[in-house]
Amino acid sequence: MQSPWIRFGGAAVGTVIFLNLVLKPKTFRTVMIGLGVGLTIGSTITYINSLRHHSLTAKYVPIGITGPQANFHEIQPQIYNHLSQEYEERGELELGEEHITVKPNVFAQIGVLDIGGVRTMWTKEIVPSIKNSIQKELLAASNTSDTNVESEIVFCDIGSGVGNICLQVLAETNCKKTVGVEIIPSRHKAAQTAFANAQKMFPSIYRGKNALWVEKDLVQCASTLKKEGVNVLFSHSWMFDDDLMRQFTKVITEVPSIACVITSRKLDNHLLQSTPLKLHSLAHFSADWNDKAPFYVYTRSSS
Ligand SMILES: C[S@@+](CC[C@H](N)C(=O)[O-])C[C@H]1O[C@@H](n2cnc3c(N)ncnc32)[C@H](O)[C@@H]1O
Predict the structure, then answer these.
(1) Are residues 280 and 162 in the same domain?
(2) What are the GO MF terms of this UniProt record (predicted)?
(3) For the chain, how many structural domains are there in total?
């Protein structure tokens, strides 16, 4: 078998002879100069790159700011193996739960942020916002380093479904406590089971982590959020109606520890005036229904 270099050389010489025959002398000269310059630049770049000690291969970067912890892509399928295909196909509802979906304040449609979406939300919105707004109080008081900002976050998902976001945040970041508020009982139970599985299957990742699940209508959760010291609130609230968004905003006004809110639907401007929260930006995260699902980000500072 011929060496690839001999074959490559043969092809190159053949091409030059062919071009010499078919092109006019002036055109042939221009093409050859172009090829020569391209070859020189290309091989110089390749040589310089081979001297460098890093590779350009894409690597998994954990969403936490404090170093690698876990990859939820590997964890999720294992801790959710209790969800049957029929349950998922029914839209994450048990038979017999249909009547709940038509009760006032219940918007049971599923729509989930995907793993990449949660990572973008955490790194691009939540951590910077907490640094901006509560860093001064927390860090000045305790002289805590930047890397501990995450561990000061008590993250709450309003309408937490089967608990995917809370469990990803606990696995992949330094956040130690999450609260999931969910009105559909089977989703609440599925989240509890997933957390129990997570603690059993991945003890080193979930050690010292606390996922609290609250089976309630969100309009009744202010006292729990206050008691748990929630400071970051997320809601995939795209289907909530205006009245529920007003009640949601009222809950926020009753929890002074909240420093950042991320919600698909806007909060009630009028009610929000009694809080230090201001609309900061419109962000986009990938979800199962939209690669760029829009979310409003409210923070304590508007900058
Ligand atoms: C679009 S899903 C979000 C699921 C998950 N948080 C995510 O983004 O990956 C909205 C969730 O809110 C819940 N929900 C709807 N109305 C509610 C209410 N009044 N109180 C609490 N949860 C509610 C639904 O049952 C559903 O699980």
Answers:
(1) yes
(2) histone H3K79 trimethyltransferase activity
(3) 2
